[in-house]
Amino acid sequence: MVKKFVLQWHLSENCNLKCLHCYQENHKPIQLEFDKLVIIYKQFKELLNKKKMKGHINITGGEPLCNPYLFKLLDLIKEDSDLITFSILTNGTLINEKISKKIKSYNPLYVQVSLEGGKKTNDYIRGKGTYKKVAEGIVNLRKENIFTSISFTATSLNYKEFPKVVRYARKYGVNNVWSDRFIPLGDSDKSLALNYEQTREYLEIMNKERNKLKMVKNNNTTISMYRALQFQMTNDFAYGCTAGDTLLTVMENGDLVPCRRMPITIGNLFDRSMYDLYIKSDVLKDLREKKIPDECINCEHSEVCHGGLKCLTYAMYKDLNHKDYGCNL
Fold it and tell me: Is 175 exposed, middle or buried (0-12, 13-18, 19+ CB in 10 A)?
């Protein structure tokens, strides 16, 4: 498999929802004009060409479908389909039949929608009525045979509801369900982050549901367990964070960060190019060195895991020299 360089691109902070755990805490309507978006896109192409790699863009927000330039940007990506693939990460509430047909015409690798548990919990976190609207969006996506994934953010409030999300996914023909843990940012409540006892239970719940699906005949929904620490249940390869190496994130104002969940500003793309920042940033160089935290030196998985979820470590300690907050090895 050819490794791709992934860009997570937050087109704007515009959104039609205000979720409890949203990373866009202040919901400022920052919106770059299209000519600015083109500059960023060309910089990503320059980086790919200089590194001699193919690329993938995860287009997100805010809510990307609230962005007036989304489909103009997709026109550019379509012209470069031999170099760049893309996916859309959306809350799923705005995907009617017309929108799903339009998305299909651009041939996305997948569309990811978000769900946070059963109806009561999801609507508490994401807003009244979103549970039903997401289902309608998924139905429209699947009508167009678009590969559809559900993302479940595990918090101390909802992690036990993962089985409800799996049942929902099967009911509406979702192709894949994946999950990762909540990362507190800024003023976000750290009490929403899973401690190591909760993390262990959450991983056990995920693995139980995954194994149950393997026994179901004619099942078309899978559960991915490839995120940090999930290998502890599956015995698959340990996850290694790629932030700063083959993953970068561009924020709505053009700031470059290693990952949305690791908000260390490297620079702004209207001051310095993406490639220049990638090559010269001391922060990104340190991340590429894959340093192993002192607590993990003697762990058999350390050479691949490198301490687990780096963004969670940074959020909890403001220091990367610690093992994953949820790890009990």
Answer: middle
DSSP lists the bridge partners of residue 56 as 6, 85
- Sign, Cα dihedral of 137, 31, 245, 329: negative
Q: How far apart are CA 100 and CA 111, in angstroms?
A: 10
3-state secondary structure of 207: helix
State pTM to two decimals.
0.93
CB of 13 closer than 8 Å to CB of 24: yes
Q: Which residues, including other chains, have CB under 8 Å from residue 191's CB and lie 6 or more apart?
A: 156
Burial 24-54 (b: 16+ CB within 10 A, else e): beeeeebbbeeeebeebbebbeebbeeeeee
By residue count, the chain amounts to 329
The residue ranges of the chain whose pLDDT is under 50 are 1, 27
pLDDT (0 to 100) of residue 188: 57
* Angle between the N-to-C axes of helices 97-104 and 130-143, in degrees from 0 to 180, rounded to the nearest 10: 40
Instruction: Identify whether the C-beta of residue 91 lies closer than 8 Å to the C-beta of residue 15.
Output: yes
Residue type, 94: L
Query: How many whole angstroms separate alpha carbon 280 and alpha carbon 295?
Result: 29
Q: Give the SS3 label for residue 109.
A: coil
Cβ atoms < 10 Å from Cβ of 294: 11
The helix or strand, by DSSP H or E, that contains position 58, with its residue range, turns out to be: strand 55-60
Handedness of CA 246, 267, 319, 284 (dihedral sign): positive
Question: Each residue of 263-304: pLDDT tens digit?
Answer: 899 999 999 999 999 999 999 999 999 899 999 999 999 998
Query: Residue ranges of the alpha helices (H) in the chain?
Result: 34-51, 70-79, 97-104, 119-126, 130-143, 162-171, 196-214, 231-234, 274-280, 282-288, 302-305, 310-317
Whether 131 contacts 124, CB under 8 Å: no
CA 262/CA 103 separation, integer angstroms: 29
